[in-house]
Amino acid sequence: MLPLKGDGGSFVLNAMQQDMLGTARKGISVVLLSPTGSGKTLAYLLPLLEKLDAKSDNLQALVIVPSRELATQTVDVAKRLCSELRACACYGGRPAMEEHQQMKGLRPHLVAATPGRLLDHLQKGNLLPDNVETLVIDEFDKSLELGFREQMQGIVAMLPSVGQRILLSATDSDDIPAFVGTDKCLRLNFLDEESDDRISLRLVKSPEKDKLQTLYRLLCTLGTQKSLVFVGYRESVERVGKYLEEQDIMADIFHGGMEQRDRERALYRFMNGSVGVFVSTDLAARGLDITAVDNIIHYHLPSSEEACTHRNGRTARWDMQGSAYFIIGPEERLPDFISAEEAEPYPLPANVPPPAKPLWVTLYIGKGKKDKISRGDIVGFLTKQGGLESSQIGRIDVLPHWAYVAVERAISRELLCRIKGLKIKGQKTIYALAGH
Could you tell me the pTM of the whole model? Predict the structure, then answer.
């Protein structure tokens, strides 16, 4: 058993997590349906990590996810729960050989991967599946879509020792293919919980077919609140992002055609609050555990009730409140799956305030985990040599070769002058502000 940082009894778990923990500990296969933001990742990782053999060098569990962001976030959460866990994320968009070399040195207990990349590693023998006893399929309604099914069937066929299957989603699906082996799974359905009561639906009318000016006025009205804007196409994401930048609104963009590093940088800046507006395709509707998103803005209307559920699920996570705004053009109407009675009209004021700057800014530090830099090192450096109070330091993300730190915008320029040329943990590096 791997030693968790705390045990299942020391975490404050909601009813869904307690039910899942008790069931999964017995080795029972489960299909878990629960709203986004309810804590499904923790619900399955706690019992899964308990059963892994810390002394073994064998791969023992696979987590299949539909996106690279969910793969990396799954591994990050697992490592925070258990410092002795050896885990890695595998996904397309980077060399498979690089991942193979990492796995050879790491000998992971757990791998979180997208279907295509996982099948590639299994077929090449880079991952040995003989001792994999637990298979998790997260966002299974997406991972088992027709485009993934051939890959998923190939993966399942190469796992001879799987005894427990765990499938998770925020939307139900009756179309689970037989090869997954869920015919004997216990179904835990928490989709009727009152999560929708925490989201206020609001209707914003645009007088023009081109909604850019309406979006701008809405964002100015919302001030420093964190807003996630959903747009239907990659090209539209670029167009909306460029327009907002020209209007002096600090916004980052996010879509599948971007380079991985650019996507990661945009995500970190939004997550740490140094950028208040995040414009994305539906890629951001799943698997991103972004805390404290105040508003979901449907610039382009969702294509289905399922898409709407996943978009809105980025706000009101856990026990928080949130709002979802639907911008409706003169020739549009609300989709049938959205009740007009539930969507409260939200008239914009005639005169809106100027764009508000986020309260935080991102400090880039050119050293990371490979340089033996930790969160504690960064906090110590910024407080002792940078002269900051701990309250002036926000989220810290330490990556292999660099780190991002949220610091208060009001003191960021002064901080940069103080630390310029100073060494962190005896190492000279680059410091720069992003999103200022």
Answer: 0.76
